[in-house]
Fold:
Amino acid sequence: MKKLLIVTVLLTGSIVHLFAAQGNLPGKVDLMWVAWLGSVSALSFAFILTVYIMKKDPGNERVREISSHILEGANAYLGQQYKIVGIFFGVMFILFLFLAFTLKLISVFVPFAFLTGGFFSALSGFLGMFVATRANSRTAWASKTSLNAGLRVAFSSGTVMGMVVVGLGILDIAIWWKILTLFQLPVEKIPPVMITFGMGASSMALFARLGGGIFTKAADVGADLVGKIEAGIPEDDPRNPAAIADNVGDNVGDVAGMGADLYESYVGSIIATMALGSVASLKLEGIVALQLIQIPLLIAAVGIICSILGTFFVRTREEASQKELLRALRIGIYCTTVLIGVVSLFLIVSILGSRMIGLWGSVVTGLIAGNIIGFVTEYFTSDNYRPTRELAEESLTGPATVIIGGLSLGMGSTLIPVITVVITTLAAFFLSGGFQHPGLGLYGIGLSAVGMLSTLGITLATDAYGPVADNAGGIAEMAKLEPEVRKRTDALDALGNTTAATGKGFAIGSAALTALALLAEYANKIIEALDHLISMGKEPFSIEHFDIRILEIAKTTAGKIQSIHLNIDLLDPRILVGLFLGSVLPFVFASLSMKAVGRAAGAMVQEVRRQFRETPGILEGTEKGDYARCVAISTKGAQREMILPSLLAIVAPLIVGILLGPFTVIAMLAGAVGSGFVLAIMMANSGGAWDNAKKLIEGGSYGGKGSDSHKASIVGDTVGDPFKDTSGPSINILIKLMSMVSIVFIPVILVLNNLFLQWVL
Amino acid sequence: MKKLLIVTVLLTGSIVHLFAAQGNLPGKVDLMWVAWLGSVSALSFAFILTVYIMKKDPGNERVREISSHILEGANAYLGQQYKIVGIFFGVMFILFLFLAFTLKLISVFVPFAFLTGGFFSALSGFLGMFVATRANSRTAWASKTSLNAGLRVAFSSGTVMGMVVVGLGILDIAIWWKILTLFQLPVEKIPPVMITFGMGASSMALFARLGGGIFTKAADVGADLVGKIEAGIPEDDPRNPAAIADNVGDNVGDVAGMGADLYESYVGSIIATMALGSVASLKLEGIVALQLIQIPLLIAAVGIICSILGTFFVRTREEASQKELLRALRIGIYCTTVLIGVVSLFLIVSILGSRMIGLWGSVVTGLIAGNIIGFVTEYFTSDNYRPTRELAEESLTGPATVIIGGLSLGMGSTLIPVITVVITTLAAFFLSGGFQHPGLGLYGIGLSAVGMLSTLGITLATDAYGPVADNAGGIAEMAKLEPEVRKRTDALDALGNTTAATGKGFAIGSAALTALALLAEYANKIIEALDHLISMGKEPFSIEHFDIRILEIAKTTAGKIQSIHLNIDLLDPRILVGLFLGSVLPFVFASLSMKAVGRAAGAMVQEVRRQFRETPGILEGTEKGDYARCVAISTKGAQREMILPSLLAIVAPLIVGILLGPFTVIAMLAGAVGSGFVLAIMMANSGGAWDNAKKLIEGGSYGGKGSDSHKASIVGDTVGDPFKDTSGPSINILIKLMSMVSIVFIPVILVLNNLFLQWVL
Structure:
């Protein structure tokens, strides 16, 4: 603890120093050192906590053995996943090399940036999982002492994950900043390159979320269907050959998948805003591009330091009740939020002067909106509130009413988050002066997303500790520790469900705002790419074939392009059909990913049945099931099934762009954000509510365990599994990845669409 | 039959005469007589068929008694519904009177047009139901003879419904045309008034679909849950007090509700296109407004006559198999489609000359698209194809996998219909010359919707006979007719499910196209209303408060408005948030309507349980259940529950318009069309597939009746009930009603939004 205190003092000192130095900032000072500071602080803090966790007692031999089975399974899964993903990244890398060096359509940095984005995203997930797979047994063992002791280990593990994600996120940006400035690239050209590593991160995140989500749900459903229902053995029973796979799933899906996912969200929001800053600065007098470009990064870095401080506010008495623990976590988050609010005010005013104080307003709207969406998510999914309690009651009339009730709950729960995002968007745009300078307003929308995610260091901690507690419970069960331990880990798990709801709110809300920012950036890039192509005088490229109704091109008498102005008219049929195409994509994606879970689960069911049939000793407890084979089957299924839905995100913008042009793509992206945002909230909340309704019944309400209403609630929970852990969270990534693919491939789309139109007309 | 042949000859003669006369059309000839001819033909044909049905034997005393119970229940329901709807229409009428006469913001015809739209929509449903409630017993009795005999009665009843809908639709338009021309209104001013009666029709349709949908599903679920599952008596058992309510539901929901719904679709597509025609004609040389305005109406009228002819192609052998019957129905539809295609070519070329032949292309794309969407719907929901067969197989692993599979199926089934509508939109726009004259292109999109619905007379016949066959089956069961009869009515019912799928495809596809047309009309109306307000010099109204970025206003030096140009930029945040708001509305609507079904069903469950408990003789068959009370409870529940979701459609555009302005409303409408279209298809197809998967299992596959897989499939079917019969079809109406409300209330929204902005700024 002493060490931690020293770190705190050092960090606080740095912040004070920062503001002392910026008091009379000349306006052009490079503040990248703040980003480095933030990144290094996060990674050091993560390292310290990892050491702290590793020092804890990993438990008796049985506990260590089970934990090592889980670890092996998780590593086997990741190894296989990285192989498949490696092929994808390899192919894309070569494609980018070709586009950059042979066709000279994109920047030469793009192929490499793409790789690093994928690498860091994967690393975030891997490191988070590295710690989680070690913390699970230690949490179980610590829970022998007290609830609080268990919480400390699990929460530390979650914090490591949070810190790794934000630390690596800033690090990647900072490294590229360094490289690109070494190559003498002007600052305005830096953000576009970074979008490419955003695309790398998003691709990796989609694979991780989908693959992990399919794995964990296939294992879960497989274990439940054959073990619990057919063979009648309890959950996490060591006799179930799929039990280890189930626990592996928590790690590869809910930890590694979530890590990659939030790395993508975090980095995506920052770089999208940086890109908008670079465009906005062009039209503002007295503002240097460097300032606007760096601010999102600085807010994020400051957010890291405040999050670290915030974790110290999470204090609990030794015999704290569950309610007190929840309060403690909340205090940590709220303190961080307030700290960031205060510090970012100083930051923005000292860098840009008080006339730009409206930008701070944008940051604050994001901070507030994140908390509102988080609360709404909790309201609709926690059994402390009416919706989930009523859903549990509906299980009394059977599975059909539970399903109708849950779907209806999820659909209804989308209204307030949407209204919140609407108000945030308008407020961020208005406050940052968007009605005078539209570019600045769009930048403000981006800043609200950055503000929302600036607390990620601590909110992710509260989110990521849940799966660790869940695993600890599984280990306690399989290692036959005292029932008291399982009770405590269950309490931790329930607490995790509540705090995870808040975390999900941030992920979903920021996804919508980031997607809006990317949309704006896409429009900017079209103009830039057109300029570039025209200046290159590409032979097959003919500006005449572009749509003059959408594009206003001013020509000088000499025939040279003077200025290009986009006019994306909502009522143009090519725009309207884009909206239609965009609206349908999240549904198709959800359909594909749910089917994937079904197929992978089917393979698992076959395998568990086979083991029970061929080795009767397993059920009698005299022989061990083949855990590794179950893991291998789920791994294989997940890898095979994740490919088709992932390709959709990459192929759809390309096909639509080539056939219908880049303007229909904009509308498609807007449509996908609209329907995807709503569908993602619905799936997450329906799933969460079904899960907690089942837990409420298992706690003894409405008939309790084993009753018909319990069985009905299990049906709801099973349907909810792919909703909340596979399809729902992946949709967030989908809408951003599609935007990034569109941005990165603009020159290609422009040229091919041009060729296509020449061929048709 | 002789009479029918005479009618045919007469009609064919009229068409020949029409083209002979139009060969050298002067271009300004008023062709409204064709509309009158179409309308009168349809209504006469409906009358003849009604007489034919009434002459059939209504069966023995028991059959007649049950039929009269159903009739009474249905009438009681409609009486109650018209009372509630009457209050709504009364309030709106007074509001419109106030707006028209006191504030002079809208045309004086609006209040009356609104009333007639509601009246005719209700009348369509009522007349369809009048015949259906008489045809049900006669179908049951005729099925004693043969499958074919049963089909003839049921199909005649469906044809009456189809003819009444199209006949009254054209009649309403023709009457208003007459009135408005008597009042010397210029033809260009006629379509806007008609939009108001479209709003009346849509309001009525929404109430009828929702109320009827809630009634029928509450009765269905209530009867199943207590009767089938708790008491263990078969479906349609006379001992079940909810059995009559269940059969009443088929009539008020699937007949009266569907009639009002399709009346709204039909009339909506025609008048939206007429309105676009009036705007397009302003910018076209050599084209008289009258021509473009009347063409949609003429195509519809010609479609009626072709549909009547088409019904004569539905010929069957006396011992026809189910497959042959299906083929016979198909031949009828295809013949009608081809006939309309040919006749409309002559129509357009003779009226507008061959240079406008592209408009015919738009009509044809609509005709083709309707058939494609219909086929896709059938592919995904019929047990003849893989998707539903696989869904049935998934019931082997329990209800959870059935639900996941069905949702996934529904979501996946949305892709091709969306792509079809996208291609239709682009093709209709392109063919009609939209790239030269955007107004004409939008008109072309409208024409494709009219083309799609021009076969409604016969497609609705194949759709509407299903519930009659369903009812006939119920009556056969309750009246204890020979099992052979029930088998035959079941075969008819199954056939109806297949053809109904095609009908649904037309309804959904045309809804999307009509909504696009209404969107374009909305934009036109904004300009017109602004012009009107400015010319009135309304004191509180200040053009300065409008958004100059969205509105380009050219002023002359004298300060008078010269021209207004809309520029609805997709990337403006106020437009993007509109998309968000629009995307969420169909979800909220679906949530509310599904909850409504749940609550109404709960009340029914209580009532049936009470009757079984308090009167034990019911289950023993010695006493009769209180059928009327069940009907009354379902009626009360439906009326109470339909109000909130319906208000959403009316209130949402007003609130958004007043707070965020009319431009955000456009985006909201576009967003609602996008997500609503997809959600409606998904809900309809998931529901249809679950229904048919259950039927497949009941036919003996995957374990057959009474097996666990059968139980699992019943869960799917129960979830699917509100999907396909309440929420899904209502969403189609919702998106059109919102557009019409927006259009009608534009002047009000403009003034109030202006006041609001003045107050805020």
Observations:
- Residues 483-536 of chain A form the longest helix (54 residues).
- Chain A touches chain B through 84 residues (CB under 8 Å).
- Strands of chain A lie at 551-555, 561-566.
- Chain A is about 80% helix and 0% strand.
